[in-house]
Amino acid sequence: MSRAFVNEDQAAAQADQPVERQVSDQPNHVTASGLAQLQQRVADLDALRSALVAEGERADKQRLADTERDLRYFRARVHSAQVVTPSTASGKVQVGSRVRFVDEQDEEHVVQLVGEDEADVARGLINWGSPLGRALLGAQVGDEVLWRRPVGDRRIEVLEIGLA
After folding, report:
1. What pTM was estimated for this model as a whole?
2. Residues pairing with 102 in the sheet
């Protein structure tokens, strides 16, 4: 058999395998709620995997491979999770803090700093490692910080720090 056919067979087999999900290099700081969400995701994926395996030959092989990939990712995220319990005693923004701030256009915003798997901008949940999260981390009420954004830097002032 020609080498060309072997390479095509190998390429076809690799095409069926999903690309692994990349795990971030930043520490996996999460809120207690974020850890619970990760654990629930693992349980849901485990149940889906069991259902797909039970289908045997009728199972959607690509869906099973995708589910197993996602299980590896979320199990690793649960394993590396470092639950952060915020404290208002420090008076500084930390993971889990709800922060009210004002920008240069006098627009007020409220966000909560959370772990990357819990982040949801539409709900005001911001990854602590994002540009906004890094700008706010460690700030105190009254501090003016520089939010380095891809579309241009913006100065913001912290008005209030609380717990979610």
Report:
1. 0.76
2. 108, 157
